[in-house]
Design goal:
The chain is mainly α and about 220 residues long. It folds into two domains: about 60 residues, no CATH class; about 150 residues, Growth Hormone, Chain: A (Up-down Bundle), CATH 1.20.1250. Helices cover about 65% and strands about 0% of the residues. The protein contains seven helices and two strands; from the N terminus they run ββααααααα. A two-stranded antiparallel sheet has the order 1-2. Helix 3 packs antiparallel against helix 4.
Length: about 220
């Protein structure tokens, strides 16, 4: 029986994604794209009518399938980025013991600032672009993540260390990290999505400048 145009999912030996006239017969297929079609926008896909279900066939709305595949691909490449991030942590920690905390912090913030836009422009429509972009940025994020706990502890004497670390850190996380997704969505809604990238780079540049104001704490005795 000929099926109407629809998407089919696969895991393992079944079809992963496709807009096709008939289900595939080759079980080794990994990716099937529709042939003879035209490029469409996401909004057009969302408006595409889903064929009616039958007693033996339940079609999936096209936009829902796209979202499922995007989520799966994103998760897989998040895992790749996390592996790179974890692997970079001991490297930066060891390097900070050799060359100092401030140089590593400068490398992390400065590298992230310089590569933010190139890695953003790299993201197009390929899975490898997502993996590379995330991995590169996470290498530089790992620079600060690897040593910030040590730096915080070394900046404050024992008597006020808990308050000195906890209060400023909590305020910054709430003020910048807590508002970031809302700010990004708002800028996107008013067609200023690129402004968020500028905002992120500006904060990174401020971080680079702020590092000049803190003392070098490598090798500091924490018992004081």
């Amino acid at each position: 029986m000929k099926h109407p145009p629809a998407f089919f999912i696969q895991k393992g030996t079944q079809l992963m994604i496709g807009l096709i006239e008939n289900p595939p017969t080759k079980r080794r297929a990994k990716l099937c794209l529709h042939c003879g079609g035209n490029e469409v926008t996401r909004a057009e896909v969302q408006c595409t009518e889903t064929p009616r279900a039958t007693d033996t066939w339940q079609p999936i709305p096209h936009i829902e399938l796209i979202e499922q595949v995007e989520e799966a691909l994103t998760f897989n490449h998040l895992q790749i980025g996390n592996v790179v991030f974890i692997a970079a942590l001991p490297f930066w920690g060891k390097l900070s013991d050799r060359i100092g905390r401030k140089k590593v912090l400068w490398a992390g913030a400065g590298g992230a600032a310089m590569l933010h836009f190139p890695m953003t422009w790299l993201l197009k429509d390929s899975a490898w672009q997502l993996a590379v972009g995330m991995s590169v940025m996470l290498i530089f994020i790992a620079a600060s993540a690897a040593i910030v706990p040590a730096v915080f502890a070394e900046l404050f004497p024992t008597s006020i260390r808990t308050v000195g670390v906890g209060v400023p850190y909590s305020i910054c996380v709430a003020a910048f990290g807590g508002t970031a997704p809302y700010l990004q969505q708002w800028l996107r809604d008013i067609n200023l999505a690129q402004a968020f990238n500028v905002y992120a780079v500006v904060l990174l540049v401020i971080s680079v400048l702020f590092i000049f104001s803190i003392p070098e704490t490598r090798g500091k005795d924490l018992r004081g």
